[in-house]
Design brief:
The chain is built from 12 helices and 9 strands. It is an alpha/beta fold and 293 residues long. The protein has a domain of 188 residues: Alpha/Beta hydrolase fold, catalytic domain (Rossmann fold, 3-Layer(aba) Sandwich). The strands form 2 sheets. It has a 7-stranded mixed β-sheet with strand order 3-5-4-6-7-8-9, with helices on both faces. It has a two-stranded antiparallel sheet with strand order 1-2. β8, α10 and β9 form a beta-alpha-beta unit. The protein starts with a helix and ends with a helix.
Length: 293
């Protein structure tokens, strides 16, 4: 069969089109960079797109997986990054220091190594102090602070007495020697509410039980971090999303002139992001919108 010029041209045209598209089809996304702080690997997730970044930092004995609902809710509006603090989750454990300054540098390295801009830091529980430290490390990159069930007595009370210090150290010693029992008592008595579901309790206690007890206890040691001084240094409004089951004493923040705003999650325990995710997400969205006004 004789091939006409038009048939030959058409075949060449199709071939060229397919050839042009082939590299795009086979193009693979570059893997996320490995982040390390002084040799310690930091595990993280990153949705990559967005002019504003929400960087979520978890609390004691849990991990970045507690923010999955927030990633799903906010990923179409913002770039969303979650991280495992070293010592927890999938991050490394190969260091000796587990205080606010060290963790603050971990958050700082995530911001620097990913080149994050317009960062809103969201920190749960002990990560409240950590995100303030990070904000003071890189003040130009951080535009907002959101605490989750923390900063409940900033600037309230005087210097702890020697008796208080002794009692505190005894509690830490008990945690070191009988970690699971002491930690479970703490969570069940102080951190869960009457409405915290059995499934959520089981999930959290399982993560606590599988934490590195040496690192977890070290995180609870007394720290020289001054919440009042560092919050004033940050010069940013502190946005709080707190449970109303335990009170938030704002007298210290008012007395010291620390700007703040609080959204309360009614009836929640210490983990509103997983106990009441819809209400929490709406409150967080409102807090973010307030940053732009």
């Amino acid at each position: 069969m004789k091939i006409t010029f038009h048939q030959l041209f058409f075949a060449a045209f199709i071939f060229c089109c397919c050839a042009c598209k082939q590299p795009e089809a086979n193009k693979k996304q570059s893997p996320d960079p490995v982040i390390k702080n002084q040799g310690v690997k930091i595990a993280y997730t990153d949705t990559h797109t967005g002019d504003t970044t929400l960087l979520f930092v978890h609390g004691w004995c849990i991990n970045k997986g507690y923010w999955l609902n927030q990633v799903s809710f906010f990923k179409n509006r913002y770039r969303v990054v979650t991280m495992d603090l070293p010592g927890f989750g999938e991050s490394g454990k190969n260091r000796e220091t587990w205080n606010t300054a060290a963790f603050g540098k971990d958050v700082t390295e995530v911001i620097k190594q990913l080149g994050l801009k317009n960062v809103i830091l969201i920190g749960h529980s002990m990560a409240g102090d950590i995100i303030v430290q990070a904000a003071n490390n890189v003040p130009k990159e951080v535009i907002g602070l959101v605490g989750v069930d923390n900063f409940k007595s900033v600037g309230v009370g005087g210097t702890p007495s020697r008796q208080d210090s002794i009692a505190y150290q005894k509690a830490i010693d008990s945690l070191k020697h009988d970690f699971k029992r002491i930690a479970f008592e703490y969570f069940n008595h102080d951190l869960f509410s009457k409405t915290t579901s059995a499934a959520i309790k089981a999930r959290i206690l399982n993560d606590v039980a599988h934490s590195d007890s040496t690192i977890a206890a070290a995180c609870m040691e007394q720290d020289n971090f001054s919440e009042s001084a560092e919050l004033l240094k940050a010069k940013k409004k502190l946005n709080l999303i707190n449970s109303d089951v335990t009170p938030t004493n704002t007298t210290g923040m008012k007395a010291k002139g620390i700007p703040f705003q609080i959204w309360y999650i009614h009836g929640s325990g210490h983990f509103p992001m997983v106990e009441h995710p819809s209400e929490f997400n709406n409150s967080l969205f409102q807090a973010i919108q307030k940053l732009n006004t």
